[in-house]
Amino acid sequence: MTNDLYVMGIETSCDETAVSIIKNGTEIISNVVASQIESHKRFGGVVPEIASRHHVEQVTVVIEEALDQGNMTISSIDAIAVTEGPGLVGALLIGVNAAKALAFAHDIPLVGVHHIAGHIYANRLITEMEFPLLSLVVSGGHTELVLMREHGIFEVIGETRDDAAGEAYDKVARQLQLPYPGGPHIDRLAHEGEPTISLPRAWLEQDSFDFSFSGLKSAVINTLHNAKQKGEEISPENLAASFQASVIEVLVTKTIKAAKLYNVKQVLLAGGVAANKGLRRELENAFMDLPDIELIIPPLSLCTDNAAMIAAAGTIRFQQGKRSGLEMNANPGLDLETF
Length: 339
What we know:
Elements: E1 6-11, E2 16-23, E3 27-35, H1 37-41, H2 48-69, E4 79-85, H3 89-106, E5 110-114, H4 115-121, E6 133-138, E7 143-150, E8 153-159, H5 165-175, H6 182-190, H7 214-230, H8 236-261, E9 266-270, H9 277-287, E10 294-296, H10 308-319
Parallel strand pairs: 1-4, 4-5, 6-9, 9-10
Antiparallel strand pairs: 1-2, 2-3, 6-7, 7-8
Helix pairs in contact: 2-3, 4-10, 5-6, 5-7, 6-8, 8-9
């Protein structure tokens, strides 16, 4: 008889169909991701209807592959965790209904998970979390500083007021005629150039931990338009480096300020933009001067959307006695602090 806890995670909030099985909240047994990037690339962004259709086609296959990869059967699963929100409502519905069908058919407890909580808990697959901790969440739709004093309780102390960092990256990439998704291409170009172009940093109010990248994005667009009108050439590499330097300086500075203010033991990086090499390097450099605070950066495979993170977050909720009924619906506006 084993006391091990096996949780299956299902994630379909955007353009990845992902299923994973996690043991005891910390050990990955299987982690399968079917990406749709190639399907959306020609449109320059995610098309919700296409994303939903792909999820319908893939979700059963990916569930079976996750079980096969872990050499397990559905009867071995103790709970099913699924992304309830936020995300694209049509995409979320596919995962939610697949999870509900499995839970109902096999009489397995169901646990709804907040997508951002998943990104944060991806770090627990690397090392145990120590409280209080601060998480810098940087993704296509979210830029937030989240304080945690205990498992499962989230306090958002800073958030984006307009474009999230990932959104700004994609919009700037489009101006530079780079393929979707733009973040990795900007990051690559930035390492080939120098930050020689003066671009703004949006610090907002003195005591604010909020973020704003819309003005920076507009400044990049204006720089390109002004150069074109004057017949001047602007180095894409230098512009990418200048843009990235502005984003990273604000992210890192506010994270350090918040970490010191709240006297945290750990700082966790989370979200798709956590894969950015420039951001990872600058955070590592900054925290070398703060030996009392442990910086946790997940591997690239756990930065982008995946189901291991959903299962990890779902494990905590399950252990805390939280359950979702079969009336659970997709909730694209799900609030992190109250869910």
